[in-house]
Amino acid sequence: MIDTILALSAGERAAVLGALDTADLRRLALLQAAPRPEQRPPPGDWRVWLALAGRGFGKTWMGAHWVCSLAAAHPGARIALVGATMAEARAVMVEGESGVLAVARAEARPRFDASLARLAWPGGASARLFSGANPDRLRGFQHHFAWCDELAKWARGEAAWDNLQLGLRLGACPRALVTTTPRPTPAIRRLFEDSAVARTGGRTIDNPLLPSAFRDAMVAEHGTTRFGRQELLGELVLDLEGALWTRDLIERGRGAPGTMRRIVVGVDPPAGEAGTCGIVVAGLDASGRGWVLADCSVSKASPERWARAVAAAAEGWRAQRVIAEANNGGAMVESVLRGADVAMPVRRVSASAGKAARAEPVAALFESGRAGFAGAFPALEDELCGLVPGGRYEGPGSSPDRADAMVWALGELMLGKAPAHPRARAL
Fold first, then answer.
1. Strands (DSSP E) found in 54-103
2. Counts for the chain of helices (H) and strands (E), in that order
3. Residues 211-226: what's their mean pLDDT?
4. Residues 221 and 258 placed together within one structural domain of the fold
5. What SS3 class is residue 165?
6. Do residue 56 and residue 179 come from a single domain?
7. What gap in Å lies between CA 32 and CA 358, rounded to an integer?
8. Measured distance CA(183)–CA(185) in Å, rounded
9. Whole domain around residue 160: which residue ranges?
10. SS3 for 189?
11. Residue 414, Cβ neighbours under 10 Å: how many?
12. Are residues 207 and 58 in the same domain?
């Protein structure tokens, strides 16, 4: 199609391009594009290529282009495509706007069998989809190459990575590409500290296809923050000194909860529609251990929408109570629950201390092993790691709304009431 358009006269080409919609024009741009220097594979005899880059850098396009190039150069290759979940592997890596199907040229486009989670190229190469949350599914498969997207989000990152590596053993030079926004998870730190791993990086502003207004706005808002260094500059920012939660503490607390004897939903309503409404589901199991079960938070939502999200979380998890901060919108939650005919008590709590101060006694529960995470919740975890004693917050956004919702929920379950004041901690 591209060759046909390029062969037209200037006038004919303008007429054809003018008749295309935005999606078609984007696809043409993707097909014509060549990797920027920072998107090209590094030189040398490497086995693992770790590409740490900011959001919007073009990581997905880079990975999809690399995979399509390998399929063309190695007709019988077996390739693993591993995403944070199976849904993300399909929606982003395969069918996304910059995924494999969008990047591949028409004559070399693979056939995607969703029922088998498998891609098949005309030349004989094939790829299977896997999830970083299900390491055992990687057992028994062998591959020549692997593309791992957003490894920092994988719920069972180290186990999934190890199982993938054990099967990456076909051909003379098996290789894996990891494209991810950096977060200092154990799996990412392992690769970052391995001298045998080839590393490249990139910033959001390196992508010339992004609207300049977007780039300028993101730099103005986040450019000098730890969040901006991670999400825009692609830097691996390690734990804050003295933070209430560290990545290691979070990883130690992951597990599979037992039977829940009580479940509540913590809510930190936003001050306006531009903010995030923290909605976190927590439960207490039969052994008395507290668990974070789900992060159902919503951003940039009207009061009616976020209140209905609270109602949906409460119904979906069969919660016994909703704990809502009264300062900003606890009454709204209560009225929507009544309107939705959700028979559930709402306890409105008033904040008499800052968010970081309220979080200290709950952090102590994690330190003592009395609380943990039933899964991976990246946005919530980033906020927790930005909380520092004394009221400082150095995480993403201007306020740790998800973290505060979690504190309300676990405080209700395990401290007898939602915590208002910090408990003394040894330093």
1. 78-83
2. 16, 17
3. 78
4. no
5. helix
6. yes
7. 53
8. 6
9. 33-231
10. helix
11. 18
12. yes
Q: How confident is the model at residue 18 (pLDDT cuts 50, 70, 90)?
A: low
Q: What is the band of 21 on the pLDDT scale with cuts at 50, 70, 90? A: low
Is residue 324 domain-resident?
yes
Average pLDDT, the chain: 85
Give the β-pairing of 276-285 and 346-349. unpaired
Domain C-terminal end among 231, 258, 293: 231
- Long-range contacts: 316-319, Cβ < 8 Å, 24+? 317/263, 317/265, 317/281, 317/283, 317/293, 318/263, 319/263, 319/264, 319/265, 319/281, 319/344
Is pLDDT above 50 for 421? Answer: no
CATH code for the domain in which residue 311 is found: 3.30.420.240
- Rounded to whole angstroms, the Cα distance separating 392 from 394 reads 7
**β partners of residue 276:** 299
Number of domains present in the structure of the chain: 2
- The string of pLDDT tens digits covering residues 142-179 is 999 999 999 999 988 999 999 999 999 999 999 999 99
Residue 3 banded pLDDT, cuts 50, 70, 90? very low
Backbone φ/ψ region at 350: left (φ over 0), alpha (ψ -120 to 50), beta: beta
Averaged over 297-302, what is the pLDDT? 89
Q: How far apart are CA 123 and CA 139, in angstroms?
A: 26
Q: Is 226 in the same domain as 279? A: no
Are 253 and 227 in the same domain? Answer: no
Token pair, residue 223, equals 């450019």
278 and 164 in one domain?
no
